[in-house]
């Protein structure tokens, strides 16, 4: 078990829930981590797609329903606490909100709120990753997401009757 | 152990080694899988960066030295054989060859050769994923990789003294 476990990594998925009309982004504070604003998200269930995990975690944590649009960025980090000595792959999905009212999961969160994207860019409170992704989204809002999005397509697998999701730029 | 193992996935990393002058791509046939042409690659060592894994696996399998350029695409697939019941994340890295002579690892491979990109696009022998990535690379060759590449940057982590790699479009 140890040998194959060394090959594994801990993927987690976040929703960058952006209301394009107001320019506001859904941010949360995690009760079980250092108090800081971050995107809602969490771990996948076995067999769950990236996009499904992000949508599910956003709803469970904040009550907001959202739809998958694209992937904006993904991170690889080694040597992190809370990660069972694995490296992580943290994927930020761009989601479009379908509902806006917040129902905050008090078991998981300290707080959640809609925050203007400029606040992420100007306030020192936010992480380098949040600022970097906010800058990407700002470009999408001011120009177009066509140049920013990593899009999802479904292709036939080499394994009969199965498909897979591929994330890349349009060609 | 079982509980946290359910959260893990099996990442693997391939090199799309493209010689931009000749338009040729390095392809291999894996001795231990169904005989088909695919990109050289394999699993990460614990704590190894995406880019390092792709470069190392290409060298170990084919003897070709290459440099990381970008990520072209990544796949998520569930229910695959040889994956310890994990879903996979398979990342295709665009690499630039520094050497071209092949030293084929006979333990791992049946064959390896430089193949023109058009052959990937026209011959029925190649998988949907190889064709999709070849189309992306063809766009990069004929227009520019600026619109195709998912680029890597290194950012400060929230964990003191650490950094992480972020993969996204330039903003």
Description:
The structure is a homodimer of 171-residue chains. Chain A is built from four helices and nine strands, in the order αββββαβββααββ. In chain A, 22% of the residues lie in helices and 37% in strands. Chain A is globular and about 50 Å long. In chain A, the strands form two sheets. In chain A, strands 1, 2, 3, 4, 5, 6 and 7 form a seven-stranded mixed sheet that branches. Chain A has one domain: Alpha-Beta Complex (Nucleoside Triphosphate Pyrophosphohydrolase), CATH 3.90.79. At the A-B interface, strand 5, helix 4, strand 8 and strand 9 of A face strand 5, helix 4, strand 8 and strand 9 of B. Chains A, B: It is found in: Cytoplasm; Mitochondrion; Nucleus. Chains A, B: Its main location: cytoplasm. Chains A, B: This is Nucleoside diphosphate-linked moiety X motif 6. Chains A, B: InterPro entries: Nudix_hydrolase (IPR020476), NUDIX_hydrolase-like_dom_sf (IPR015797), Nudix_hydrolase6-like (IPR003293), NUDIX_hydrolase_CS (IPR020084), NUDIX_hydrolase_dom (IPR000086).
Quickly describe the structure:
With 171 residues, chain A is of the alpha+beta class.
- Give helix and strand order of chain A, one letter per element, not per position: HEEEEHEEEHHEE
> Which regions of chain A have little confidence, pLDDT < 50, spanning 5+ residues?
none
Radius of gyration of chain A, rounded?
Answer: 16 Å
Question: How would you sum up the global shape of chain A?
Answer: globular
Mean pLDDT of chain A: 91
Number of strands of chain A: 9
CATH superfamily of chain A: Nucleoside Triphosphate Pyrophosphohydrolase
Taking the sheet with the most strands of chain A, its summary is: 7 strands, mixed
| Derived structural class of chain A | alpha+beta
Helix share of residues of chain A?
Answer: 10-25%
The second-level CATH architecture of chain A is Alpha-Beta Complex
Q: Kindly report how far apart the N and C termini of chain A lie.
A: 41 Å
Count of distinct structural domains of chain A: 1
The CATH topology assignment of chain A is: Nucleoside Triphosphate Pyrophosphohydrolase
Family (chains A, B): Belongs to the Nudix hydrolase family.
Keywords (chains A, B): Cytoplasm, Hydrolase, Mitochondrion, Nucleus
Subcellular location (chains A, B): Cytoplasm; Mitochondrion; Nucleus
GO molecular function (chains A, B): ADP-ribose diphosphatase activity; NAD binding; NADH pyrophosphatase activity
